[in-house]
Structures are given as C-alpha cells and as structure tokens.
Amino acid sequence: MSSDEAPVALVTGVNRGSGKSIAEELHRRGYRVFALGRTLLGEDWLTEYACDLTDPAQIRSGVGRAVSEAGRVDVCVSNAVDRVWDPIASLREPDWDRLMAVNLSASFHLTKALLPAIRAARGQFVFMGSHAGTHYFEGGAAYSATKAAMKAFVETLLLEERKHGVRACLVSPGAIANLDGDEAAYKMATASVAACVGAIIDGVPGDLVVGEIEIRPAQPLPPPVAGIDRLLYV
C-alpha cells in the first residue's frame, strides 16, 4: 500500500504520554498520522499543526489543513487534556474555563469540523475519557466534570451518526503512567493504553460498535490496613 492509499488518523495532544503512544501505535498499524496540539514533536512520520485547542477557529483551521493535505480522514482520536487539582473553594475561574475548553469543548469543535470527512470515510471517533468521570475525588471537580460530560456527548454522537456509518467510542482509563520515568506497578503503561485504542480502531468486526470501554490497571493498589492489623502501625 502506498502512503497515499494508507488510512489517515488525526490525533490531538501527542506531545507526550498516552497521546504520543497512540500516535505511534497508529503509525505502526500503517496509518498516516496527523496531529493538532500546542507542542510539536518534530517526528518525520508525523504531520503536525500547531493548534491552541481552546480556540475553535484554530481547531477548524487545523482540521481543514489535515483534510486538504491528506485527502481524507478515517479516524479521529480526541486525546488532548488539561488537569488542575484544586478544591472548588480555591479553583480559579480561568482554570475552570480552560479545562472546559480543552477537555470538553475542543472535542465538540473537532467533531463538527471533521464530521463530513469521517462520514465520507465511514470512519470512527475515539474520545479519551477517564475513571474520573464516574469516580469523584477531592480537588477533581473541574477535571471530573469534563470527563462526566464527555460520556453524554459521545453517546449522543453515536446515536445520531451510526446511521451514517460513523462509529464513536469513549475509552475510560484508570491510572496511566503518563509522566516520564513513572513505572508504578499499579498504573497502566501508555503503550498498553495505545494498544487497546488501536485494537478498538482496527480489530473490531464491521457489524458491531464499541460505544464505551473501561480499562483499569491489572495490579491494584494494596488494600487499606484494617482490623487487628492496624496495631502493626501504632
């Protein structure tokens, strides 16, 4: 297959962590990979466009450039994310607005801009969610709110677009070792998450749709100390 005949994937937020691994996995599977994000990797196999994902106009421009250069887009992986772990009492309004823009609204604008191309290819959207969308924690209000809302968005997209041959999947991971040097046994490797995403995109029979999948580390955290064992820590 020539490069012009290869399927095309557009991924957001590929500068590090799981986004980078997803882009590498799709490249390994034979996709021409295009990327939108603020930080560029400069890899020769990756076509990148600088894009501030808080700006709908930049998203539309980046999508337009990718579709124009590639001629088609078969898969979109909306991965870019921002995080703030402040409690509500001290959470700054600009931080709340930025997380809403990057983690949620960017997926809407990306979908709107790409939908004609994905329809034409009878392709697929994959949105990276999080366990934080259903498992809430102190300091996670902004992050969890965006991930909870993503579930409603993706399910509605699937309901509306399945009749046009468009698939949409929400991938909700638990803890991922996204930072360089993080090899914690109770976190998933980014390459493992990417392999799962690649399998959803490439390994699913054409007569079914994976609407949502939850993945979690195989190795759980040690359980809390309870009962008489507490005496060991007095």
From TrEMBL:
<protein>
    <submittedName>
        <fullName>SDR family oxidoreductase</fullName>
        <ecNumber>1.-.-.-</ecNumber>
    </submittedName>
</protein>
<dbReference type="Pfam" id="PF00106">
    <property type="entry name" value="adh_short"/>
</dbReference>
<keyword id="KW-0560">Oxidoreductase</keyword>
<dbReference type="GO" id="GO:0016491">
    <property type="term" value="F:oxidoreductase activity"/>
</dbReference>
<dbReference type="InterPro" id="IPR002347">
    <property type="entry name" value="SDR_fam"/>
</dbReference>
<dbReference type="InterPro" id="IPR036291">
    <property type="entry name" value="NAD(P)-bd_dom_sf"/>
</dbReference>
